[in-house]
Amino acid sequence: MIIPTLRNILEDLFIFIPFFSNIVVSAGSLDSDQGHVGHNSLLCWKVEAHGTTQDELWVNIDSKDRSVDQRIVLVRVAVARYYSRMPSFYEVMIERNFSSAHQLRGYKGKCENLHGHNYKVEIYARGEELNNIGLLIDFGDLKTAADEIVKYLDHRNINELPPFDEELNPSAENLARYFLEYLNTRVADERVKVYKVRCFETPTSVATYRVDD
Question: What local confidence, expressed as pLDDT, does residue 54 receive?
Fold first, then answer.
């Protein structure tokens, strides 16, 4: 009796390799009558997605009546079925840059002093449907809206600009949220939502603000 090893399965599932960062395939057994792990059970491969028992997919690869190729097909089908159940959406991203000064009020350290950054901001929008010409949102429209904020902040002391003069500390976290909330007031399309903004103070220091539906 030849049972495919985990290596065999992964090698043969090459078309799913991009997804396997979140999937574990392991040997196991499944009770054919009660639908759960048991002693009187068939040999199976377990395809576990995202590491939660709720997303486990049990694939019967009992070798008595299935070739290795048939078992591989069964695992492929299981993985495909899992991903067909996952929410799907389109995503676009734009990047904007600006240079500004700021100081963090109440910070105990050198960042309490006035200093500057060459900021990079990544703006992510998503939606489930495209428009009639196959676009989620025009990149140009999203850039135009983002540039309204960039123009407001660029080559300025952010601490002197509302709402960062009194209400908010001009941290990367608060800047990311400011971009996201403003842009969602400027995107006049119910199909599209700006759901994530990443604000880089340096290439190695980044804050993210995101909202989930």
Answer: 39
Each residue's pLDDT tens digit, 146-166: 999 999 999 999 999 999 999
Q: Where are the domains of the chain?
A: 6-85, 90-210
The H-assigned helical ranges of the chain are 6-12, 68-85, 139-153, 172-186
Q: DSSP for 7-25?
A: HHHHHHTGGGGGGGGGEEE
**Quick one: DSSP state of residue 47?**
E
Respond yes or no on whether the N-terminal peptide bond of residue 162 is cis (omega within 30° of 0): no
Q: Single out the residue of 158, 155, 160 nearest to residue 171, CA to CA.
A: 158
CB atoms within 10 A of CB 108: 7
pLDDT bracket for residue 212 (50, 70, 90):
confident
Question: Residue 123 in contact with residue 146, Cβ under 8 Å?
Answer: yes
Which residues are catalytically annotated? 111, 155, 201
Q: For residue 75, what pLDDT is reported?
A: 62
Single pTM value for the model: 0.63
Give the CATH number of domain 90-210: 3.30.479.10
